[in-house]
Amino acid sequence: MPLPKFRKTLFNPILGFVFLFFHSFSLLAQKDSSGVVPVQKLPLPIKSPAKIRHTLVLPIIARSIETGWSFGVASASTFHLNANDTTIRTSNAQALALYTTRSQLVLALNGSIYFPGERYILNQQFSYSSFPDKFWGLGKTAPDSSKENYKFKQYYVYLHPQRRVGPNLFLGVIYEFQRVFGVEYIPGSLFDKENILGRDGYHVSGLGLSFTYDTRNNAFSPDRGTMLQFYFDHFMPLLGSNYRYTNYVLDFRRFIRVHDQQILALQAYGFFNAGEVPLRSLAYLGGANSMRGYYAGRFRDKNQAAIQAEYRVPLFWRLGAVGFGGIGNVGSELKDLDFQDCKFSYGGGLRVALNRTEKLNLRLDYGLGQHSQGFYLQLGEAF
To answer: Are 326 and 310 in contact (CB under 8 A)?
Structure first.
């Protein structure tokens, strides 16, 4: 299943070069038979195989276009609730504490749990952010010269339990809560001129449903299968929300094994809003997972659509390479999502397998957009 909606919180688990370059290789040399870098060499329990898990705890030195250099600690754990059931995908849990050279702080817990037989799946995220950010105004023609700095703090909760209702078919319930506060911006700037909702702080609470068809064979880096997901999330005062609006998301992903271990990954993504949409719930282009090369939020509006493709090629040992490209746009109305002033991005990167058994990769990507570029170090594939 896809990860929760990180688009709303600026959180992505970021793992960079660990300690010193040579020390990271000394850790890799201590792997166990599964290819996992152990935190400490301990005998594995024999009588309780269902409790076996692989955990990676590492200091972070990373960089992205939104954060600059980042420092902190992250933990990534993979496990099966029933180790004897090899037909289900691997559950995962991640924790992050991150501070950046731009005075940004992110604390987060997230993960996906696959219950026995995949009858149930639970995606969840809890995070806190204190984040100096940038804003260029609304619309696909917002000029570079309009850039303004602002700050905000945010608590975020996302819960998405799902139940299998047919072969590869899941029905889910979504709950989402955001509290945005401590917003600081220059009075009379774009926030006031464009009457951006939520610029004085707010909280929203929403409930919705999801419908998912998923035949992917891996949770981290599938090499075959299809995922088609549609969900909506309705925010209203009855649930304690300051604003009433509905968020609709359509996400299609296809993974094709072209030759040997070479994979063509495709994604079509639409993010749509109707109603009174506050600042941190607006659609946007850019970031580490879509339209790489643009600052996350360089172009914002109520609606967004994007298509991207990535070609993944194994090289040798734990290394792989990718090439990617994407095209997308934003607009206040659906009719604005056309090819006029359309944005494109492209780039390439390397992959380092942290866990070859579970296909958990560290990715290093360099993306280029129109008058924009970005370098990303992340845990897991973009999609």
So the answer is: no
Average pLDDT, the chain: 84
pLDDT digits (tens, 9 = 90+) for 139-172: 999 998 899 999 999 999 999 999 999 999 999 9
CA distance 118 to 244: 34
pTM of the predicted model, to two decimals? Answer: 0.81
CATH of the domain at 336: 2.40.160.50
Q: How far apart are CA 204 and CA 180, in angstroms?
A: 9
Classify 7 as helix, strand or coil. Answer: helix
Is-contact 362 53, C-beta < 8 A?
no
Q: What's the Cα-to-Cα distance from 51 to each of 32, 44, 48, 81, 205, rounded to whole Å?
A: 17, 10, 6, 7, 35
Look up tokens 């941190």; give the residue.
280
CB–CB of 366/345 below 8 Å? no
Contact indicator for 39, 57 with CB cutoff of 8 Å: yes
Q: Quick check: is 109 in a domain?
A: yes
Q: What DSSP state is assigned to residue 327? A: E
Considering its fold, how many domains does the chain have in total? 1
How far, in Å, CA of 247 to CA of 269, rounded? 13
Dihedral sign computed on CA atoms, order 260, 262, 268, 271 = positive
Domain-embedded: residue 1: no
Mean pLDDT of 318-323: 94
User: Whole domain around residue 322: which residue ranges?
Assistant: 6-379
Instruction: Kindly state whether residue 213 falls inside one of the protein's structural domains.
Output: yes
290 domain residue, yes or no: yes
Task: Give the number of other CB atoms < 10 A from CB of residue 48.
Answer: 9
Angle at 262 between CA 261 and CA 267, to 5 degrees: 125
